[in-house]
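Subject: for your reference before the review

Hello V.,

The reviewers asked for a structural picture of the protein, and I figured it would be easier to keep everything in one thread rather than splitting it across files. Below is the amino acid sequence we used in the manuscript, unchanged from the supplementary table.
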Amino acid sequence: MLRKELLELLKTGRLLIVTGSMVSFGILGPAAARYLPQLMEG
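And here is what came back from the structure prediction:
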């Protein structure tokens, strides 16, 4: 069942979208945590 789902993700191009969103959230999370106090001070 997992193989079928992975093949479907590859064929439709959703795998690229899901991977890209996970990577962007992975990068933006720590960056936001670091710079949020500075942004809140103004």
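For the response letter, the relevant points are probably these. The chain has a mean pLDDT of 90. The helical segments are 2-12, 14-41.

Happy to draft the paragraph if you're swamped.

O.
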